Each structure stands twice: as structure tokens, then as C-alpha cells.
């Protein structure tokens, strides 16, 4: 029973593999870009010379009115001397303990002493010892 069924399946696969392969449909050609007529205005328009005595155009006044007001005061920046130093870990070169996250180590390999480093746990800045 298994042999005739296997033989029939094998013959069916063999015959189906011998059929002609249809070629994929050809793609339609795309239209090429056409240049604008010679009489049309080019973009951007030709720039006019600046006249300091002329009144401002109407559209400029609207843009200035819609602009957001400038911030009144900038936050005070911390000076370089305000940052604490990291605590060196004994027995581990290039590793310091963060002054902001006790017990958490930060790898500072490749940073010279005195360089500002960002604590990955708190985002605060400290100096490499």
C-alpha cells in the first residue's frame, strides 16, 4: 500500500516540475519628466536688492508677531570647581565609586584625571580623581 502511494506521489511531483515556467509580467515604463514651459516663472523668484528706506512688507510683520518670546533668564551653569570627585576603588584600576550613588562603580578608563564624567545612575557630573 505504501509503495504504490509513494510511487504515485513521486510521478506527480516529477510531472509537475516538468511544466513550462511562466515568465513574470513585464513592467510598464515610467513617464519621463517634462520641463516647464519657457514662459513660466522660476522658483525661487529673483532676489531684489535691499532698500533700508522702504517700509517692511506685510508678511514680515505677521511672522514677527507669531514668534515666541525669548526666555527671560538662563539657568545658572555650574562651574567646573563645583563638581565632587569620584572615589577610587582599591584593587581595581580605572574604576571609581560614584559620589552620588554609594556602592555603584563607574568605569573611567581612558579619561584623564580632572575630566568631567556623567554618572550613569543619576545623570549628575563628577570629576575623575
CA-to-CA gap between the ends? Answer: 84 Å
Uncertain stretches: 72-76
Determine the fraction of residues in helical runs and give it as a percent range.
10-25%
| General shape | flat
List the helices and strands in order: HHEEEEE
The major beta sheet can be summarized as:
3 strands, antiparallel
Portion of residues in beta strands equals 5-15%
Strand order of the largest sheet: 1-2-3
E-strand count: 5
CA-atom Rg in angstroms: 38 Å
Number of DSSP helical runs: 2
Please state the average pLDDT score.
77
**Structural class estimated from helices and strands:** alpha+beta
Structure description:
- The chain has a domain at 81-112.
- The N and C termini lie far apart (84 Å).
- The chain is α+β, with helices and mostly antiparallel strands.
- The chain contains two helices and five strands.
- The protein has a three-stranded antiparallel sheet, with no helix packed on it. The chain has a two-stranded antiparallel sheet with strand order 4-5.
- It has helices at 2-17, 58-66; strands at 87-88, 95-97, 105-107, 116-118, 125-127.
- It is flat.
- A hairpin with a 6-residue loop joins β1 and β2 (95-97).
Amino acid at each position: 500500500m505504501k509503495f504504490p502511494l509513494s510511487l504515485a506521489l513521486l510521478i506527480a511531483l516529477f510531472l509537475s516540475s516538468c511544466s513550462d515556467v511562466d515568465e513574470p509580467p513585464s513592467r510598464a515604463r515610467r513617464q519621463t519628466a517634462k520641463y516647464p514651459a519657457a514662459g513660466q516663472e522660476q522658483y525661487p523668484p529673483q532676489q531684489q536688492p535691499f532698500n533700508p528706506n522702504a517700509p517692511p512688507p506685510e508678511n514680515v510683520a505677521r511672522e514677527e508677531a507669531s514668534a515666541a518670546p525669548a526666555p527671560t533668564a538662563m539657568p545658572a551653569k555650574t562651574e567646573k570647581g563645583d563638581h565632587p570627585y569620584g572615589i577610587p576603588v582599591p584593587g581595581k584600576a580605572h574604576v571609581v565609586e560614584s559620589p552620588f550613588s554609594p556602592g555603584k562603580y563607574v568605569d573611567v578608563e581612558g579619561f584623564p584625571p580632572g575630566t568631567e564624567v556623567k554618572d550613569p545612575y543619576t545623570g549628575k557630573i563628577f570629576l575623575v580623581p
